[in-house]
Design brief:
alpha/beta, Aspartate Aminotransferase, domain 1, 7-stranded mixed beta sheet, 4-stranded antiparallel beta sheet, globular, binds pyridoxal-5'-phosphate
Length: 422
């Protein structure tokens, strides 16, 4: 049985002196980060954009589910009813996490990609020939591929250009929106180069009946979200990027999902949010997602879960931005390094810093980092169109250093020291 480790909330409701130093203690909540290599180098995990590590609270919630109440839903027996409650609680919690109208707006799935494919298939039956759907060059393929399938139905796919500085071309965006545009599918931020997209500005130039879907997969680990304030129609995200297990979520504005012909069995619940969910969900992982949201909230203070989350994210993004700027500023002084993506002149950025080395391929750089027990990924990270548009595909893409809330200044300095010597 998993040994239960008592953890105290670092900040919680009682206001403590918030500083980089006590933020560093958060690292201790992540058992996987205590791993050391044969040279006694502590692991430095910089692949948060590929999936964050999970805190002990999440691990305990998942094992508790299997130890105590593993069952299918909708039964009359105790463990089944506890499972029903776990699923209801998660929808409620996720609805607060996203600032949504309520649990009926939260659909659960295997991951973001499969939910996006299901949604695209359902919408393909609603859209008409010559309707136009906009995607962007910056997006992960998971927010491009599903929409490209609509072309088989005569729906036109229009792509917004990516500028060389790593931001979307908003003039091009505005020009491509017209009376035939039925939907815009865009990321809130780039998992490849850390760009923060101006989705609120885009929302302003869309007509009321044009649907807006946001991919929040790389945004949710770093910033709080309020779908009502943004006014998006759909939003997709994945808990394994925000300290939880592998579970995907789809937010749909009230009454939108019910209107769609989703692929579903006649025996399942025929209403939102269930009508887009296929098969049995991963209940244990779902209880882990609830624990992940509680973990994030515990970093903040406030009277309600939403307030705590908002405050927690303000702290998280401040910590992450400070570290990422330190990383960026130093990388910029290394003659062999060119950072790809937006600069750090303002906070409109995620703490994901990508670069190329003038002599080594990104793969060679990552191998060298791995030798020092530093985990970083290389390539296109499935945002292949962005890497192509930036002219970096043939040379192996970029090296990506993705900071998360558990990273420390000491770690960043050690990484800089290794890169400087390459
Ligand atoms: C920005 C972005 N969108 C979508 C995805 C796909 O998410 P999932 O693995 O949950 O399908 C990823 C995964 O890396 C991502 O970074």
């Amino acid at each position: 049985m998993l040994e239960s480790r008592r953890v105290e909330l670092l900040f919680g409701n009682k206001e403590t002196n918030f500083s980089m130093e006590n933020f560093d203690k958060i690292r201790d909540f992540f058992p996987s980060l205590s791993r050391v290599d044969e040279n006694n180098n502590k692991i430095i995990y910089l692949d948060g954009p590929g999936g964050t590590q999970v805190p002990i609270q999440v691990i305990e919630a998942i094992s508790k589910y299997y130890i105590k109440c593993n069952a299918n839903t909708h039964g009359e027996f105790v463990t089944s009813q506890e499972t029903d409650k776990i699923m209801d609680d998660l929808r409620l919690k996720m609805s607060s996490f996203l600032g949504a109208e309520g649990p009926e707006t939260i659909s659960i799935g295997q991951n973001m990609t499969s939910l996006n494919y299901s949604l695209a298939r359902a919408l393909s039956k609603k859209f008409k020939k010559n309707d136009e759907v906009i995607i962007t060059e910056l997006d992960h393929e998971a927010n491009r591929g599903p929409w490209k399938t609509l072309e088989e139905k005569g729906i036109k796919l229009i792509e917004v250009n990516l500028l060389k500085n790593g931001t979307l071309d908003y003039d091009d965006f505005r020009n491509k929106v017209n009376a035939n545009t039925v939907m815009v599918c865009m990321g809130m931020s780039s998992n490849a180069i850390g760009t923060l997209n101006e989705f609120s500005k885009v929302k302003e130039f869309l007509s009321d009946d044009c649907l807006l879907l946001l991919d929040a997969v790389h945004y949710a680990p770093h910033f709080s979200i309020n779908v009502k304030d943004i006014g998006c129609d759909f939003l997709v995200c994945s808990a394994y990027k925000f300290y939880g297990p592998h579970v995907g979520f789809l937010y749909s504005k009230p009454n939108l999902l019910e209107d769609l012909e989703t692929d579903r069995l006649i025996v399942q619940d025929q209403k939102a949010p269930y009508i887009i969910e296929t098969g049995t969900l991963n209940h244990a992982a779902c209880s882990g997602v609830t624990a992940a949201i509680d973990f994030i909230a515990s970093i903040g203070s406030g009277g309600s879960l939403q307030e705590m989350l908002k405050n927690a994210y303000a702290r998280i993004s401040q910590h992450e931005f400070t570290l990422a700027k330190h990383l960026y500023d130093n990388l910029m002084t290394f003659s062999k390094i060119t950072v790809v993506g937006p600069d750090f002149s303002n906070t409109k950025r995620t703490p994901t810093v990508s670069f190329v080395h003038s002599e080594l391929t990104p793969q060679r750089v990552c191998k060298a980092l791995a030798k020092e027990n530093i985990c970083a990924w290389n390539g296109h990270f499935y945002a292949i169109k962005a890497i192509q548009a930036l002219g970096l595909e043939q040379s192996g893409g970029v090296t990506r250093l993705g900071l998360s809330l558990y990273n420390t200044k000491h770690e960043v300095d050690r990484v800089l020291d290794v890169i400087k010597r390459l």
